[in-house]
Amino acid sequence: MINIKDLFIKFPGFTLQDINLSIKDGEFFMLLGPTGAGKTLILEAIAGIVPITSGRIFVKGREITRLPPEQRGTSIVYQDYALFPHLSVLKNITYGLRYHKNDPKASKKRVTRLMEQLGLQPLAQRSIHNLSGGEKQRIALARALAVNPSVLLLDEPLSALDPNFREDIRDLLKKLHQEVETTFLMVTHDFAEAMFLGERMAVLNTGKIDQIGPVHEVFHKPATPFVAKFMGIKNVFHASFRNTKARVHNLELHLQSPPGENQRYVAIRPEDIIISRNGTSGNDINSFQGKVMGVTDRGPYYEVSAGTGNVIFRVMLSKNDFFKLELQKGKDIHISIRSSAIHVF
Amino acid sequence: MAIKRKIDPFFWIAVFSTVTVVVFILFPLIEMVFQPSVQDLKDAIYDPDVLGSIGLSIYTSGMAALISFLIGTPFAYLLARKDFLGKKLVESIIDLPIMIPHPVVGIAILGIAGKNHWLGQLMQQVGIQIMGTVTGIVTVLTFVGLPFYVNTVKAGFEAIPVRLENISRSLGASLSETFVRVTFRLAWRSMLVGIIMCSARAISEFGAVVIVAYHPMIAPVMIYERFTAYGIKYSQPVAVWLIVVSLLLFLLLRICSLPKENQK
């Protein structure tokens, strides 16, 4: 278990504050946030690489706040691999073993097994130069796990990889996590990665945690407009509420249930808004006349700006649907939204 | 055949400047090397005084480089890796010996090593003599050479990603183990270059040495002495030998410091 209590780090021009995290043994925990939110700083604080201003950090019940990095039992993997350029693949992987020699036989077995799992056996004697990014990241993973750490800290391990390697390593990470007892704490700015790998996540917004929870909960029920936008919810509006109705500008939206107190926003995922030409979706209560205000080609899908009154919804449409509806800028449309698709916070 | 393009006049200015600089540096040196006759050179190298002074020059410069290596390496590491209050000041202090006129260096060192200073008295009690000794020569050469070593090696340390050291630490290696197993292994080339820079600076020092120790005579002092006593013709052969020997040494070190093909 990793316990972080009131972590506070102050640098000129940046502050990380009120960081309270509790990560279970063996969990795959994600730290999500945009560049500059302070994600890497949290990892490096746990690893003991950056000095912290105040706060306490525990790993498996042992306080490590004041321990030097080599006594913390935390391994770190960076996005740029950071392999030792003067050592061979095998020597990179076994670098830390001499400091963990309680049981040399078990260590050796562990390295052999890791190298098998990561497909590194054929590369063992190679120099680390001229290897692909995917190979290098597999070596970095093997090196970090070889010392059997309590915690594996992953700093955007997929970001520097080509898309085809990225999926390989992503799948490998998931598999490795299931096979070893180590707790994984990974930093990323990609919510799709977080959804695929993580069990729970914390979303960081300029030095503060906005929300902590199971990945699906954060994805579907964001707690702040920042988290909502970060999770790809492009329709976030300020709203006023009365009973089961929400008012956004002059538009009235029917909710599934009355909102709780102190709730001020509605959020609707762009894929949850339905566009039709003649309002045939029928009995929907949230159904409005509107116009296509603009169309953006997003590669695999189209993003349509659908305006009604002075509210503009961003709607995700498959290419197929888009052509069937014969949409173009200025066309009249019907916009409908299921009550259950409206998230209130 | 390459397609011809219009060339900017600045290009020709740059070419002209390059040629000027190269000629300006090489012409006097080459001329000097070829002015003495073979017989003159032979006589000079068979002269035990000449041989002794060149040997002493190399020995004292080497000692200065060794001392710089021993105390300059941890210092350069600190400058490269840590931010601390007054770091800019410390960095300026290490550059001071480059700026101070050379005789002033000699005078300053004599000032604290003499009988009238408590440090000089203390050194005398433990038997360290600066004035007119090899120790004195090594002291001033270290003084003038140290900045070149520290600055070179500091840049070398800065070029090593700090992440490699972080990884090493997180895998269980202490700071000193990390230094030996990672940092030193990656920085030794810049240390070698630092040693070359430092001893090159030391071997060329004259002004500070002549004040602290006219005798025993290092090669530049001997060249100066022969020049003032007998003229240019008599000093040239010694100068040629000093240049040849130091060039060979530096070339050798330089070759050792070149990266291997597969490590570029």
What brief labels describe this structure?
heterodimer; A: 345 residues; alpha+beta; 6-stranded mixed β-sheet; 5-stranded antiparallel β-sheet; 9 helices; 24% helix; 35% strand; B: 264 residues; mainly alpha; 79% helix
How does this model look, in words?
The complex is a heterodimer of chains A (345) and B (264). Helices cover 24% and strands 35% of the residues of chain A. Chain A is α+β, with helices and mostly antiparallel strands and 345 residues long. The model of chain A has no long low-confidence stretch (mean pLDDT 92). By secondary structure, chain B is mainly α. In chain B, 79% of the residues lie in helices and 0% in strands. Chain B contains twelve helices and no strands. Chain B has helices spanning 9-34, 38-46, 48-81, 87-99, 102-113, 118-125, 134-158, 162-170, 175-203, 207-212, 219-230, 232-257. In chain B, helix 8 packs antiparallel against helix 9 (175-203). Chain B is globular and about 65 Å long. Chain B starts with 8 loop residues before the first helix and ends in a 7-residue tail after the last helix. The mean pLDDT of chain B is 93. The interface between A and B is medium-sized, with 29 and 19 residues.
List the helices and strands and how they pair.
The complex is a heterodimer of chains A (345) and B (264).
Chain A: E1 2-11, E2 14-23, E3 28-32, H1 39-47, E4 54-59, E5 62-63, E6 74-78, H2 89-93, H3 104-117, H4 133-146, E7 151-155, H5 163-179, E8 183-188, H6 191-197, E9 200-205, E10 208-214, H7 215-220, H8 225-230, E11 235-238, E12 240-242, E13 245-248, E14 251-254, E15 265-268, E16 273-276, E17 287-297, E18 301-308, E19 311-318, H9 319-324, E20 332-337, E21 342-344
Helix pairs in contact in A: 3-4, 4-5
Chain B: H1 9-34, H2 38-46, H3 48-81, H4 87-99, H5 102-113, H6 118-125, H7 134-158, H8 162-170, H9 175-203, H10 207-212, H11 219-230, H12 232-257
